[in-house]
Write a structure and sequence with these properties.
0% strand; 13 helices
Length: 256
């Protein structure tokens, strides 16, 4: 109910300020925001732990009107997690948080048209801010799994829908190829037909910031971190099959 009010805007400013303090892997501020006792204070407030709980609650009520709060919260947690702060990563690498981030990332795959409409996205799973929220969730997931131990990965794997992860990779790669090829003039546009694959020679540095390519690459890295050896061939085959079904493009150097 506070969206658009001065207190809401002030909270966004505070989140941005905290994020800027931690940018550049600033270990001192990353530690301080988690535990002020490192500087001799007798009392402390765990900013990261609190924001994690807040985001888990917020993720259930995300709408077009409050989505900036979610994006800035994920950005803050990402900047607090990066670098050498192992303790901060341990706070985020929990079953509930991993589940929440995957739910955010898979949003367009599981959300119904009615759900998108109710959240103000007008039946458009490719709404710009919605894409940014999912992209930021994928960045945070890669970061926390990158620092996790193999035994932790094994524990977390039971809370992950692998087939949905593969679908997320394929859907985002298809969207990237369509957008890069100029087939889709708007991200909300519907497309029917075969998808042209993009050759490596057609890629540009700025494509790395494309939300579709970024999410596909991040999800692929997550699967590499957490997938068990016995699932590797299965996932590889599913990804290959998905691209064979949507494209007959005979590129000598296809993007893989």
């Amino acid at each position: 109910n506070a969206v658009g009010t001065k207190p809401y805007r002030f909270v966004l400013v505070i989140l941005t300020f905290f994020k800027m303090l931690c940018q550049g892997h600033n270990y001192q501020f990353q530690e301080f925001l988690r535990d002020q006792r490192v500087c001799g204070h007798t009392k402390s407030f765990n900013v990261l732990g609190y924001m994690k709980e807040v985001y888990q609650d917020y993720s259930r009520i995300v709408t077009r009107f409050n989505i900036e709060f979610g994006i800035k919260t994920l950005e803050l947690m990402t900047d607090m997690q990066q670098g050498n702060s192992r303790a901060n990563n341990d706070i985020l690498l929990t079953e509930s948080m991993v589940y929440t981030l995957f739910r955010t990332l898979h949003g367009s795959n599981v959300a119904t048209d009615l759900d998108l409409l109710a959240r103000g996205f007008e039946l458009d799973p490719h709404e710009e801010n919605y894409l940014e929220l999912k992209q930021q969730a994928s960045v945070l997931l890669v970061g926390i799994f990158e620092k996790g131990e193999p035994e932790i990965h094994h524990t977390m794997s039971q809370y992950i829908d692998y087939k949905l992860c593969v679908k997320t990779i394929c859907d985002n790669m298809k969207s990237f190829c369509l957008e890069k090829a100029g087939v889709l003039k708007q991200r909300s546009q519907k497309f029917e037909g075969r998808v042209p694959l993009i050759g490596m020679k057609e890629l540009r540095v700025e494509d790395l910031w494309n939300p579709y390519l970024s999410m596909a690459m991040n999800m692929y890295m997550i699967l590499k971190y957490i997938s068990l050896d016995e699932h590797h061939e299965e996932f590889t085959k599913e990804i290959r099959t998905a691209f064979e079904e949507v494209s007959k493009h005979e590129s000598r150097d296809p993007l893989r």
